[in-house]
Every structure is written in C-alpha cells, then in structure tokens.
Amino acid sequence: MRRIVEAAGGIVYRWKVGGQIADNPQIATRKTAKELLDDIEVCIVHRPKYDDWSWPKGKLEQGESHRHAAVREIGEETGVSIALGPYLGEVEYPLSEEGKKTRHSHDRTVDTKHTLYWMARPITGEDAEHLIDAFGPVHRADVGEINDIVWVSVREARKILTHSTDKDILAAFVDRVQEGAATAQNLLIVRHAKAESRKSWKGTDANRPITPKGAAAAFALNRELACYNPTRLATSPWMRCQETLQVLSWQTDRPMEHIDALTEDAFADHPTMAWLAFLDQIRQTLNTRQTTAICMHRPVIGGMFDHLRGMCSRKQLAKQLIAKSPYMPTGTAIAMFIIDTPQGPNIIDIQKVTPLVY
To answer: Where in this chain does the record put each Nudix hydrolase domain (predicted)?
Structure first.
C-alpha cells in the first residue's frame, strides 16, 4: 500500500546583520522589492546523512498539524524561534529520491514525501518565552541530523541549495517578496468556540458560555495560534469570545483588550461603527508591527468579510472570505497577511487555521 510521509518546514529570513533595515525595520516598507531582496538573508541547514544543503523541515509527529510541525522543526534544526508568515507552497517527491539533487519524478504510485513550506521570521527570546506553554517544547536537533547552518543572501542560496525542489521553493519566496510579503503583518480572526445553545441557556446572551467540547477546541487552537506569535489579543467582551482566548491569554501572559463595538448587538445596531473599530485594529497591527488575534461572533465576522474582500489582492483570496453563513466553523481562525499601500491595507495571503482535537 502506497505511503505518504507528511512533513513541513520553511524559509527563515532576516534583514542583513548590520544593514540599514536591521537597525530600523520601518525602513523596509519604503524599499522596492529588489532592494528588499538585496537586504534579506535566508537560513539553510546541512544534513550530514545526505551531505546536502536544504531548507529546515521535518516529519509531522502524531496529532500534529503541518503548521505546528513547521515551527517546531525550524526551531529544532536552526535553534531559532520563529513565527510563520505567508504560505509558500508544497513539494512532493518519491522517498527514493531523498538526498538526490533532482526530484522532478512525477511517479505518484510509490511511497512519497509531501512537504508544506511557509515564510518565517525570527522572534525575540522574550516572545519565545511567552509562547512556551501554548506551543510546547522545542529541542535542538542532534548533530547527526543537522551539523551546520548558514545565513546567506538569496543569490548565494540559489548556488548552495542541493535540490531542485528547494530552488523551486526559493523562487516562490522571491515571488512573495516581490508581492510585499517580507513586510506583511498578520491579523488573526478567531470565531469563538462552540457555545451553549440559545434555547437551553437561561441567562443573557452576553453571558452564554462555551461548551466543554468548545473548550477543548479552544485549547487545541492555542497551539495553532502560537505558531504566528500573537502579541496582541482583542475580543468581543461577551463571555463566549472571552473564554475562547482566555487560556491563550493566560498561557502567553498577554492581556485581552475588549472591543465593545464587536458584540453581536453592537454590530446589529451600528455595523459601520463595528467596521471602523475593526479597521482600527488593522491599522494598529500595521503601525505597531505586532500580530493581533481578534475573537468575534458569526454575524460580525460576516460583516467584516464584506469589507475585507475588497482589500484582497486577488479574487482567489477574496473567495476564501466566505460570503454566506456560517462564514467560519466555530473554534477556528484565519490568518490574514496585510501590507500597507498608498491605496490602503492590502491582503496578500489568507490561511485557514483549524485545530486538531483528539
């Protein structure tokens, strides 16, 4: 029976040490794509078993998502704590081609390795400390697995990388940078976890809590949200939204900001005010360069999607912001990567974030 080995990894990039952008990251938003590429260094690892240079990556553990595996494996192989950025693509090749320079076989009848890749940026040691309880431990890879890492320019990476598939992912990275992804900021929209039904709940709608099953989904979602290093947490003040982010707030020691305009009642009465409050969160995310997670209700999310579709750089992205109820499943999130342009905020990547509950 054919076997598919699932794996995940990414291209970790940083601004050249000692360079102008490294000293003042805000400058990056004023640079051209070519200037940004010239100022970027990427991390490549050496595997002694295959004597090759490749992107940090590894196999999924049991009960692990590709997203979580990408962050964990990058941390294990490079020693760098990271936050995921825009998605790059996937690679699949026969396991028999592991370690070979060319991996362009299209034979999918044999055992294969399937790897998903993201852009990734280093985070501070302080941020990494905040994420330990939510994300879980990361242990350095054995020297027999990875015995060297180098930070090189994009041009040098093309020369050093051993495998054709890794060069294909580098090309996707360059395309993303030219799109503005190197300076994109992440805003996570979270739909609250499953709540007690309106019919059975005897209290007010504002105080309606999540169910035990919803609590399990919310707890599992923390592992996924932690992959993006959310340093700002915002929520509707209603109970079910607060409870969805409550454990993440406790695990990361990040306070929750309450946004009154994003309750169901406030949105129903003043939808424009709700949108302006949400737009203010987008602007804060872009201005502070901090990842924000916002927990909201089903109808509010639908109203925000109506506005956000017009911000998408491509029609394909806009279609991911579903135009009909329920918009998103309960206890899930979407990660939107946004760049600032003279015409206003522009969404260049959207990722669905679904927890694995087991």
So the answer is: 12-175
